[in-house]
Amino acid sequence: MNKARVSLFFLTVWLMAAPAYAGSFSFNRASAEKMVRDCAEEGVTLPMETAHAIVKARAERRFLRLDDLTDIPGMTDQLLKELDPIEEENDLVFNPNALPGMKSY
Prior knowledge:
Helices cover 44% and strands 9% of the residues. It is mostly helical. The chain has a 3-stranded antiparallel beta sheet, with helices on one face. α2 (32-41) packs across α3 (48-57). The N and C termini lie far apart (36 Å).
């Protein structure tokens, strides 16, 4: 198999997988604006003040577990439940595909 065909195959696979990660973000790397926007796209209301508090807190520590978000100002039990973060390889990620009751298309 030539390189062009292999490259085309992997590009196609990547493009098909991309929508699955649309709206996902790392609590350790995303800007406050991205967090708020991506949550809103999935029907989760993340207040901008809380997103800014996440950005401020991660300057001193890394978020690795769900419990790491519990002391963020503005983070309620209900909001944490709606965010439903996923622990992934030394990171904490918002993944809309993991949301319970996710709307089906």
